[in-house]
Amino acid sequence: KLFFTDYGNAAKVERCDMDGMNRTWIVHSKIEQPTALALDLINKYVYWVDIYLDSVEVVDYQGRKRHTIIKGRQIRHLRGLAVFENYLYTVNSDNLSILQINRYNGTDVHSLAKLGNAEEIRVYQKRTQTAVRSHACEVDPYGMPGGCSHICLLSSNYKARTCRCRTGFILGSDGRSCK
């Protein structure tokens, strides 16, 4: 799945398949400017920062179990968001510090370091790097990913795929070749 935020005409947090199909709103009320987004891949939770409401909130992948982790002046100007173990990590663009926030009680907030200039933060952990198994976009004997002449996108699961074409090309009737 692909998770993303939008605060155009109607602010929301959404998810869809990797090929853009099955687009679903998971949060669409009491939300103003969702920006940074982070996933708890183990427990299947979505965290986001709302820079207008000065809040960090969470829901499960279906949009249920929503609650506010932390809200208020203490977390203004946040950029980027990452999850690692019991904490959320974010960058405060006002004073260029990295903040650590306890994701279970929200009251445990620490400034860890000051940076010269940062807009994003990521945590890399071996547990979240899932083992690659065979999938529908593997290169075929002719060197084409998933049998697609241009772009192969995983669909609703790792066994399904959708072929797409680069700009200026259209997908042929075979659903794989671009013309």
From TrEMBL:
GO biological process, alphabetically ordered: canonical Wnt signaling pathway
GO molecular function, one term: Wnt-protein binding
GO cellular component terms attached to this protein's record: plasma membrane
UniProt cross-references to InterPro entries, sorted A to Z: 6-blade_b-propeller_TolB-like, Cueball_EGF_LRP_Nidogen, LDLR_classB_rpt
Pfam families: FXa_inhibition (PF14670), Ldl_recept_b (PF00058)
Origin superkingdom: Eukaryota
Signal peptide as annotated in the record: none
LDL-receptor class B repeat spans: 1-43, 44-87
Name of the molecule in the record: LRP1B protein
Species the sequence originates in: Centropus unirufus
